Amino acid sequence: MYREVNAALRSEQRQTLTPYFSYLKLFITALWKLDSVRDVVWRGVKGNLTDQYPAGKKFVWWGFSSCSTKLSVLQSQQFLGEYGTRTLFNIQCFNGKMVQNHSQFPAEDEVLLLPCSYFEVIDSIKQGNELRIIHIKQIEPPVTLIQPPFTTSPKKQVDPNRHSTVEAVASGLSKLKVATKSNEQNMALM
């Protein structure tokens, strides 16, 4: 189901999300209740993605993105592996969700990035053995891309872009609302 949901989240045809609204609301609500991870996480992708991520570019990852707090996990051929053309994302995130205690594979130290996460490319380098590393930082989007799933008292969190305390205010939600891609500028899909 993971692949189908992510394909719908990444699709230009927003109506493909309709069959998944109930599932997404339930899943995102559950994830929202977990503590947020404010740390560096890693994501490995086979292939060279450096041309798609030049320094300074701001973009959205529309789907759920599986990451790990352990770089060593990515050595598995299932993820990044040690050979072939590969891209390693070094991600500074502020609202990833640690799902290790809810995973079939707790040793992977998995962190899920929520759909509609917004980033800026800081830099990239080409390493030996066909490995590229792209450093990205999660930032607040210029418009709300996904509404929080429920109303709660505001949580205080530190905004890494402003280094000050901000209120994370949740608004009520009767249906999952996701921004359309047509009204965002300078954003890429992954």
TrEMBL record:
It is an enzyme of class 2 (transferase). Keywords: Glycosyltransferase, NAD, NADP, Nucleotidyltransferase, Secreted, Toxin, Transferase, Virulence. Belongs to the Arg-specific ADP-ribosyltransferase family. Coiled coil: none annotated. The keyword Iron does not apply. Its EC number is 2.4.2.31. Its main location: secreted. It catalyses: L-arginyl-[protein] + NAD(+) = N(omega)-(ADP-D-ribosyl)-L-arginyl-[protein] + nicotinamide + H(+). The keyword NAD applies. GO terms for molecular function: NAD+ poly-ADP-ribosyltransferase activity; NAD+-protein-arginine ADP-ribosyltransferase activity; nucleotidyltransferase activity; toxin activity. One of its GO terms (cellular component) is extracellular region. Signal peptide: none annotated. This is NAD(P)(+)--arginine ADP-ribosyltransferase. It is found in: Secreted.
